[in-house]
Specification:
mainly alpha; 53 helices; disordered N terminus; TPR_rpt; SecYEG/CpoB_TPR; signal
């Protein structure tokens, strides 16, 4: 470590420029006044001498030319000696007037003295070089050499100065040698030639005149020679002397640095601190050194204060200081601040070893506490890339896997494992568990293909028995959701003798899988088994499915018994029981149960169906009046187009059964006009057929059929085209289905299967990734009342959503939000909710969110999305307490984006409540657990900057803003907010 030299003043010349003795140039034969002038000059009475010379020159008319020349010369020389104005010009004029004067050579010395006095060392040196040394006396020559050395020194020619002074020292008398030795010692010291400096200082160190002057040199030179013990000894002795405050500070510094070099930091500390206490602008080196010493003595807060003064620097010293600052922060458990310091150090490229050490600390600390500036995994990966064969590489690769794991970025965890040169039991265990977790995450998002891939990967390992069983179980759930019930059953059956957290639900899942496969005996077996130990929330459903199995097996008494047991549970129970009673031909009981449903559940989704079934039951009893009354209620109030059409047709049939054929035919014709070219037209024709058959009006029947769009003479080829198209469509062979539907519709543009064929053609286009053609067909279906109108509108909205055309999608969603199909209606609510939330129309979004949340048939993922939107609405409307409650319930979400937003909201309200430190801790938790969620991480950094302002740590606040501005250009609105926060810091 280099120490700043003591900057002693340049050695003082103790020889006045006026001491030079002049030779006598005139004889004793001159007159008295001229001799007087000469005597006055020689005795240095310059004013009187100049007066006499001037008098001779201006007033002595008989003055000889030689003496006139001498008088003019000495008049000007004395002017130079006395530094009178324009004296230099006078001497220059003399030289021009007497270029060959015998006195010419004598002008250079006084002129050099003049320049030296004016500190014009360049001209002085130039003039001195013109002096003829051989014309000078020994004393004059000594003076000349001193002046020459002085001028060279001041011009930066130390060697030249030393050479001149060495020569002067040889010829000088004892009275002058001390001064010259002092100057030579200083020059050798300045040139770092300590041996020669010691030689000259030793010759004068005992002289009272020089003792105090040379002792500081000894302290510095001992230090420079790395003789630290002598530097300390001499320095401490010097501190007891009467020396100036600035000298004392410099001596403290040398002593402190000597102890520092001896690693005696405790002894170095007070001396370095004394030095710094009087420095208004300490150097970077001084601050770094003091910070290092304080840190070694475990005075970490003090060390931080010194290092922090270097934060605006960009140098090798600053890089080292940032690294040491990070260590000091760690020592006082300020890990967040340490993270920033290590990051600053590693981002500098001055010292590769320091950069690597800082990078290592930065990576480990980011893994430990989270990193709001950049992903900890990215930092670790960069370390591995920068040091591919370093000794820490293996440790860092293991840390990388854990970092991805603990940050919740499971996909990158697997990527990191895939890049490992060799797997280990530890990484295999992580692979198994992370693959399982990724599978569940994708499953909850509804991405069943991805979930299947991850569960299969997890099942490649069997290190953790529980995870193996759970992966197999959820793989079965994937197959169930994909409609592959045999594969689901195969996985479930393998788990019947295993123990795992979901085991209680296994019989329930097996029951449903067999139920969906229409294997009712096995389904009954497992639902019965499940009901021996059911979860309360699934008990009623399992019982109802058991009843449904009995219903499907025509075991109506058993089904009714179960429905009776659950009749107070739901409207569904009453409805199913009523249908079962109807199948038993107990229409009185059927009507009673359906009327009970209407009474108990006036808002039920089964109301319209119940009224329709009552109408059917009364018709079965030939009570056509009551039957038509209930059909009339369905026609008047139901939004279900199917029920309305069927009720209308059934009512017309009732008129036929009452022998009111004219009234029946009139109603059927009206229905024929209303439902012309629809699927209902055939029913209408079939309903009307008995009327025309009864009267033998075959042509009327044909005309009636034709008028309502029913072609009773459909060709066989058309039927083949249509049925084949449906067959391929049912098999999901959409490509082949398209060709048959296109043929059918070309030959039958208004046939009985028009809307079904068009709808299924449009759906086939969609399934074969041809959304353009799909839209052309499905938009037509969605614009006309028909059986497939709502389904077509649903698919059109889905296409527009996929294309990012929310405006067009919204039109169709608004049309189907009141659909009689509960699934269609719920889909519209969910998508409209998302759109209103995106438009920041939170009042509408919240209404829809409440409806979505209330529907327990929605998936967990959909309900969670609704809860997020509701929470945003509450926050936006200033309902802080409710918003906090809403967000708190979302913090444990398996959806990383939802959980990250919830943690952001928590940090936001902590900031709002001035709990700045707690808010920062929450932000680091967000960064640590959800590093992949860049948007919420960036917004959280803005909060962090505000927290640091609240904590009065402007450096950290400013640093955080700078990181946002530099690294989050993808989010311009967040960068703009960061810039506004930074303006507040400057204020």
């Amino acid at each position: 470590m280099k120490s700043k030299k003591i900057l002693l003043a340049a050695a003082v010349f103790y020889f006045g420029v006026s001491e030079a003795q002049q030779s006598q140039y005139f004889t004793q034969k001159e007159n008295y006044r001229f001799n007087l002038a000469q005597n006055l000059y020689q005795t240095k009475i310059y004013n009187a001498s100049q007066y006499e010379y001037a008098r001779q020159y201006f007033y002595n008319q008989n003055l000889e030319q030689s003496r006139k020349e001498a008088a003019q010369f000495f008049d000007n020389v004395i002017g130079v000696i006395l530094q009178k104005n324009h004296a230099e010009d006078g001497l220059t004029a003399f030289m021009k007037e007497y270029p060959n004067s015998a006195y010419f050579a004598q002008a250079n010395l006084p002129l050099a003295d003049y320049y030296l006095a004016k500190k014009d060392f360049k001209e002085a040196l130039k003039t001195l070089k013109k002096v003829n040394q051989y014309q000078l006396t020994k004393e004059e020559n000594t003076q000349y050499i001193l002046k020459l050395g002085y001028a060279k020194f001041m011009m930066g020619d130390s060697k030249g100065a030393i050479d001149a002074l060495e020569e002067a020292h040889k010829t000088a008398d004892e009275s002058q040698k001390g001064d010259i030795a002092y100057m030579l010692g200083h020059l050798y010291y300045s040139s770092k030639q300590n041996d020669q400096a010691f030689q000259y200082f030793d010759s004068i160190k005992d002289q009272p005149k020089f003792s105090k002057l040379v002792r500081p040199y000894y302290v510095q030179m001992h230090y420079n020679d790395k003789d630290y013990d002598k530097a300390i000894s001499e320095g401490n002795a010097l501190l007891n002397e009467d020396i100036s405050a600035s000298y004392k500070a410099e001596v403290h510094k040398i002593i402190g640095e000597s102890y520092f070099m001896k690693n005696d930091y405790e002894s170095a500390y007070p001396h370095l601190k004394d030095y710094l206490s009087v420095q208004q602008n300490p150097s970077e080196n001084d601050l770094y050194e003091m910070g290092f010493v304080a840190a070694q003595l475990k005075k970490y807060d003090e060390a931080v204060s010194y290092y922090n003064q270097l934060i605006n620097s960009n140098s090798a010293l600053a890089q080292n200081a940032y690294y040491q600052l990070g260590n000091a922060y760690l020592a006082v458990d300020k890990k967040q601040e340490a993270l920033s310091a290590f990051r600053s150090s590693y981002q500098m490229d001055y010292d590769a070893s320091v950069k690597q050490l800082a990078h290592e600390q930065y990576a480990k600390l980011g893994y430990d506490i989270g990193n709001p500036f950049e992903s900890p995994t990215t930092v670790i990966q960069n370390y591995i890339t920068s040091n591919p064969s370093g000794p820490k590489n293996a440790e860092m690769r293991s840390l990388l896997v854990k970092s991805y794991l603990y940050s919740g970025n499971f996909k990158e965890t697997l990527n990191a494992i895939d890049k490992l040169p060799n797997s280990t039991p530890e990484t295999d265990k992580v692979d198994q568990e992370v693959s399982y977790l990724l599978g569940t995450e994708e499953f909850n998002k509804g991405n069943f293909d991805e979930a299947e891939r991850y569960f299969l990967r997890s099942l490649e390992f069997n290190i953790n028995k529980e995870f193996n069983s759970r992966a197999l179980y959820w793989l079965g759930q994937v197959y169930y959701q994909k409609g592959n019930y045999p594969s689901a059953i195969t996985r479930y059956e393998k788990l019947t003798n295993e123990t795992f957290p979901e085991k209680q639900q296994l019989p329930y899942d097996l029951g449903y899988a067999y139920f969906k496969s229409k294997k009712f005996d096995q389904a009954e077996q497992y639902f019965t088994q499940y009901l021996k130990n059911p979860k309360p929330e699934f008990k009623n459903d399992a019982e109802l499915r058991l009843a449904d199995i009995n219903y499907a097996n025509n075991d109506l008494d058993q089904a009714i018994a179960i429905y009776d047991k659950n009749e107070d549970a739901t409207d569904y129970t009453l409805y199913q029981k009523a249908l079962a009673l109807g199948f038993k031909n107990d229409n009185v009981a059927k009507i009673t149960n359906l009327k009970s449903l209407i009474s108990k559940y006036p808002g039920s989704e089964y109301i319209d169906d119940a009224q329709y079934e009552i109408g059917v039951a009364y018709a079965t009893q030939d009570d056509f009046t009551n039957s038509n009354d209930f059909f009339g209620k369905v026609i008047k109030s139901s939004s279900d187009k199917d029920l309305v059409a069927n009720a209308s047709i059934y009512r017309a049939q009732n008129y036929i059964d009452q022998n009111q054929n004219d009234k029946a035919l009139s109603e059927l014709k009206s229905l024929g006009t209303q439902y012309k070219n629809t699927a209902y037209a055939q029913k209408i024709v079939q309903a009307a057929k008995p009327i025309f058959t009864k009267t033998g009006d075959v042509s009327g029947y044909a005309d009636f059929a034709k008028n309502v769009g029913v072609n009773i003479d459909a060709s066989e080829i058309d039927e083949i085209n249509l049925s084949t198209g449906k067959q391929y469509f049912t098999k999901k062979d959409y490509k082949n289905a398209i060709s048959y539907y296109e043929k059918y519709l070309t030959q039958n543009p208004s046939g009985e299967g028009l809307y079904q064929a068009k709808y299924e053609l449009g759906e086939s286009y969609y399934q074969t990734n041809n959304p353009t053609k799909a839209l052309l067909v499905l938009q037509e279906i969605a614009s006309i009342q028909n059986d497939y109108q709502d389904d077509a509108a649903t698919r059109v909205s889905q296409i527009y959503i996929a294309q990012g055309n929310s405006a067009e999608a919204k039109k169709y969603l608004e049309n189907i939000k009141n659909s009689s199909n509960i699934n269609v209606r719920n889909y519209a609510n969910v998508e409209l909710m998302k759109m209103y939330a995106e438009e920041k129309n939170f009042s509408e979004a919240e209404k829809l969110a409440n409806a979505v949340i209330a529907n327990n048939k929605n998936s967990a993922a959909v309900i969670e999305t609704a809860k997020v939107i509701k929470a945003r609405s509450l926050m936006n409307s200033g309902k802080d307490k409710d918003a906090q409650t809403a967000y708190t319930s979302l913090e444990k979400s398996s959806n990383t984006e939802v959980a990250a937003e919830a943690l952001y909201a928590k940090a936001f309200y902590q900031n709002k409540g001035k709990a700045f430190k707690s808010s920062n801790e929450t932000i680091f938790k967000l960064a640590n657990n959800y590093a992949s969620e860049d948007y919420w991480g960036a917004k959280a950094l803005v909060l962090m900057a505000k927290n640091y302002i609240g904590l009065k740590d402007n450096y950290q606040a400013s640093y955080t803003c700078d990181q946002i501005i530099s690294n989050y250009a993808d989010f311009p609105e967040i960068v703009a907010e960061a810039k506004e926060v930074k303006k507040q810091i400057k204020k």
